[in-house]
Amino acid sequence: MSTISAMGVGSGIDVRGLVDQLVAAERQPQEQRIARQEKQAKDQVSALGRLKSALADLGKAMEKIKDPASFRAFDVRVLNESIVSASVRGNAPPGSYEVEVQQLAQSQRLATNAGLFGAGFTATNQLGAGDVTITLKDGSTETFTLADGASSLQDLQAQINANSSNVRASVINDGQGPRLTFTSVDTGEANGIDAISVSGAAGGALLNGLAFDSSTMDGAGVSGGFTQLRAAQDAILSVDGLTITRTSNQVNDVIEGVDLTLTEEGTTRVGVTEKEETAREAVQAFVDAYNALRRQTNQLGAFDVTAGTSAALNGDSTLRGVQSQMGRLLGNPVAGMDGSVRILADLGISTQRDGTLSVDQARLDARLAEDPDEVIRLFTDKDDGIVARMEGMVEQYTGRDNVLDTRTKGLERNLRGLEEQRDRLDYRMERVEARLIAQFSAMDIMVAQMNQTSQFLDNQLGMISNMNKK
What we know:
There is one protein chain. The chain is an alpha+beta fold. It folds into 4 domains: 15-27 and 411-469, no CATH class; 33-69 and 278-406, no CATH class; 74-105 and 235-274, no CATH class; 109-230, Immunoglobulin-like. It has helices at residues 15-65, 153-163, 276-300, 317-331, 361-370, 372-380, 386-398, 403-469; strands spanning 74-78, 84-88, 95-103, 109-112, 130-136, 141-146, 167-173, 178-184, 193-199, 212-213, 222-223, 226-230, 235-239, 242-246, 250-251, 258-262, 266-274, 303-304, 309-310, 349-351, 357-359.
């Protein structure tokens, strides 16, 4: 605002105060209109953001229960866990199974014969350059090359442990000198060592002593320079009388959905039961997520009769569209379902006056007991299930180029326009103030001049009057 000093000196009128009041009176209705429109736009932007956030929360909740597996969970119990331990995954058919572990799977272990390389031999003595090839029962081979000066038992151990995916090597001194041991990484007959051969070594090299052929083992398990300390073997078990052989003690393909770990020979029972509360909890999770969104939309569109005030989106067409769509998606039957379960009402789920859902727990439990698969399908059908419908609605209002973002951008443009209107109002009020100041200043000067003329005339008349008295 412009400032003029010493205004009103000539007339004695408070020109500054009068101008300020006149400017304020002209500014007020327009400034109030701009402020009112700004508040309304900002409130709507905030409300649309809350609506979008609530829709996104519904989408997150639907993501957790869209898979039929989220409605089903199972318990597995083992009568004697010292024989078998078990865990359940996915959908496992309820049942009870007799499991007999007849033989545990184990890995093979070989060791060089005691005194193989003579008295005084150490783990750092050189064996001589050459290639050592290990052949497994499945026919696969691995070859390790020793060079002059790097051909000790320790060198061979290091090479195997660094490069082999099938065998682990150790050097152990059992009091009769160092012995090299080989242990197959995986259990099962097919993963055992079938043969060990040496090539490229000089005729008298100690390396030639590292030979083994499983087909020539004697009764003590000795062949060439090695003794078999433990044979590779498969796990053998029977389930309800059916004999099964596996290479590992981890068995996950015999009882559907159940992983077994064999730990001891013997017989026990494995029981699988379904947790009844899982489906009930999934249904309740849907109801809770839906109700949270519905309550949010109710708040955003509310009207307080007592106070006579409206929420930011009261009467808003977008909000009404969301609410209408929510009710419609819940009420329509799921395509292809023509039995006793077709809509939510068949499960005892009904809509209240405020649009939220309530659950008749007894009726829901009855439906879950009678036909759990159809209840699950009602929610999780990929094409037309309740969850798929809700996800579609969420995508419509939160996905790319959605109506909520379009509305928000429009309101933000309006706010920028209102800010420009405020700037123009400020500029115009400055002009009005300057005009009023100029007008009142001219008046002030005129009044001052008139006062001076009046004072002159008074002086002249006084002088004439004094002269006449003489």
